[in-house]
Amino acid sequence: SIYRFRGGVSALFGEVARENDTEVKKLLTNYRSQKEVIEFVNRVFIDKIKNYSPQLTREEASGGYVEVLESDELLEATLTQVNRLIELGAALDDIAVLCATNGDGEEIKNLLQSQKIEVVTETTTKLINQRSVQAVLEYLKYLYFKEDIYRHNFFALIGQESQAISPVNINCVALFDIIKGCIEKYQLFSDDFHLIRFLDAVRSYTDIDALIFEYERLDVSAAASDLSGVRVLTVHKSKGLEYKHVIVMDRLKKPPAARGSIIYEYDGITLQNVYLRTSGRDAIDAEYASALAKEKALVLEDSLNALYVAFTRAKENLFIIKKSEQSQFDILELSCERYGELHVQKVEKSLQLKVKKLMYEELYYGTQSDLLSLESQEQEDLSAINFGLAMHYMLEMMPAFSDDAIAHAKDMLLNKYGFMLEAMEVEDILQRVERLVNKKEFLDLIAGGKLYREKALRYKNNLRYLDLLIEKEDGSYIIVDYKSGMNFTQDHHKQVRYYINAVREISQARVEGYLCYLLEESIEIVKV
């Protein structure tokens, strides 16, 4: 664990394994890094980390390069190594600079950008910081505040001449539809996937007011495929990630004084004592001295774990840049050395991939996606689509088709779709379901059968989901397909006939199919 600064206690892993009588197996083979990186890490940490198990190298990982450099001009030394990799042909996306703190990361980011090197940081990966999303936000601000500065900002961001913007009734038009209309009118989509992610994110906002005044809280990452540049991040943020070329930079400033005024003394995972950190107390209080010694040992362990994480992010080449004094690497006793041969797979800059321009098209996935998509092409009624999805979901969540089961299914419906439905729409769905569970013709269909809700059906390389599949005692099957409207009856019949043929061919049994229309005023069951 490297998260002790957040209150993490690594002893929990061992305790959980012990309490649950869990066999712990070590994963000894490293499938990420090249041989020179792995062997360097083994040499450095074998005598530093308690119970360290040397990592084994896979046969094909015979290369790699490690270099330990010393410089008191850390920023310039780091820039030199980045330029070195770029000149050798490394892709910017394959280079990562790992720093001790966010402040260090900000400084190296500014230096790289001053040299016209693109950089990706935690800030730049936020969705709201992407140019296309910022443009849409400026558009919404103009509609809301009616201030020309936002209109000019909008057109500047999309690279068009400033012009009048047609008014939109923001009190009547749904926020999602306002944004979609903006994207379509000004042809913003192209191949920008940030906007797709933004459209998905704003579904949780009820109106434009909520988004305008709260969008900075929108903690959503941008589409990774649209981000390019040298990655600059802290060691803690790098856990779980990997890069071909990693530069681990020493901390720019002196290490901070001991965090926290409280010392917690643990025996395993059991809290034994709590002490107020007091200078000089360890000279006269043996118990405090013991607790302080344990605390320092844990701090050292945490530091070693963090450096281990940093070094093992490298897949091919690892550069360590340390200061001559007060270095965070002092605990490792590193000397300036080179191991292996530096090899960079050159990226041909002349290679231009021809990407077909994408046009924005709404897609509806999940239950009944094929027909919902068809309906949307005809009427583009997003609320009707959401209504149908919500009704299907409530029926799926019915543990039994009875009045007693409705309350539970309603809770599940509200948990998943409540934010996008009006109160009257929820009530409408409830009434339709209540009529269904009291419809004798429907109850006769399911009587004595084994029910499968949202049953997956793979047939001729196509995956479909049956709303309700009933397996009767005689081995025959009944398919029931729910609909909330009768606008596309011919296509509904075609869909169910496809299901019938598929189930019949797979099971070699007798199969019947029914369309179950849960309408506003009645339930209509039609045999196909």
Automatic annotation (TrEMBL):
What keyword terms does UniProt attach to this protein? ATP-binding, DNA damage, DNA repair, DNA-binding, Exonuclease, Helicase, Hydrolase, Nuclease, Nucleotide-binding
Q: Does the keyword Nuclease apply?
A: yes
Q: Which Pfam families match?
A: UvrD_C
Q: What is a single molecular function from GO for this protein? A: 3'-5' DNA helicase activity
User: What are its GO cellular component terms?
Assistant: cytosol
GO biological process annotations for this chain's record? Answer: recombinational repair
Domain UvrD-like helicase C-terminal, first and last residues per copy: 27-149, 228-324
Query: What Gene3D superfamilies does this protein map onto?
Result: 3.90.320.10, P-loop containing nucleotide triphosphate hydrolases
Protein name, per record: RecB-like helicase
Species classification: Bacteria, Pseudomonadati, Campylobacterota, Epsilonproteobacteria, Campylobacterales
